[in-house]
Structures are given as C-alpha cells and as structure tokens.
Amino acid sequence: MIHYKGSPMLETKRLFLRKMEMNDADRMFDYIFSDTRVMDHLIKGPHQSISETKARLTEITQQYESDTFCYWGMVLKESGELIGTIDLFNFDDDTENCEVGYDIGYQWWNQGYGTEALQAIVEFAFRMMNIHKISATHGMDNPASGKLMEKVGMKREGIIRHMIRKDGQYKDCGIYGILQEEYVERNAGSYIVNDLS
Description:
The chain is α+β, with helices and mostly antiparallel strands and 197 residues long. The protein contains 6 helices and 9 strands, in the order ββαααβββαβαββαβ. It has helices at residues 25-33, 36-39, 50-62, 113-128, 143-151, 180-186; strands spanning 10-11, 15-18, 70-76, 82-92, 97-104, 133-139, 155-166, 169-179, 194-195.
C-alpha cells in the first residue's frame, strides 16, 4: 500500500525541496518555463508569457491540499534561489508504482543538483511512501537525463519508439526504472535526505 505524504519539506546537502508558491512565478518564467534549452526536453513547449507560468503555478499550488500530490521546487540552501522542480506522478495503487520527472534551469546544469534532488525524491518515495517501482523517461536527444537517472541506480529498460510528438516530430524515448529492493540494497544504512515537515 502506498503511504501518501503529499509534498513535505525535504533537505539534502545543498538543497531544500519545498512546495511551490505563487511568488515563484517570475523566477520560474525567467529561468525555466521560457527557456527553450530547458523546455525543448519537455513535452510542452516554452511559455510565451508570464501569464502562462502563473496559470501553471495556480494549478500546482491548488493541488497541495491533496496528499497524493507530490511536487517540489529545488531551492539552493546557500542563496535561497529556486533552480528547478521535481515531482512524483502517475501513481498506480494496484502495482504501487509511479513516475518521476524534473527540470532544472540551464545555468545550473552539470553541477550535480539534478542528481541530488532525484536521489532525495527516490529515497523519499521508497522509504517513506512504500513505492514499489519508480520509472522515468527521457528523449533520446537528451542523453544527459539518462545519465542522471543511472547515477541514482535507475536502469534503462528499453526504448519506446515515437513515444511523444512535439512540433510535428515524433521522438523516441528511453525508459528507466528502479525497484524498491534494488534501491534499499544499493543504499543500505545510508540516508541522504531529511524530512523537515
């Protein structure tokens, strides 16, 4: 059985993972949602105006009332800057499986923040929520995302041809997964995240 916990505040070595707020809109628009370098790797394209970002944040913040909604902003401890988001979604109560997704502002790529946040959410899902398996996908034109998944112990399970269509073009996606038992065996006795709720 999945133990839904919502989106509690979590802490890692360099990050706080916290609920998104409406006053995050300007930063989300400037550094993530309007940046084609970031949004080209996501199904929905870049936002054209701040009003799109505000509408998306309104959707997100209204869902925090539900314990089944798991969506965090990645915030640098040192500066308090919001640099990305990460979420768990597509929960299946029969299999106790779910998916994970993330995005990070371009200027923070290749600095280990994505790995740190993903590791924390994977740990939270397995140790606190009793998730059985976590899956993730990435476009084959974005191999860096696959490498990030591998760093937390996810294994590539295959390639789904023409999984998504964007701008009239079909894209193949790699699919990765990790089981709770694999995670526990790989990280026996070590904890990298603190629940601050």
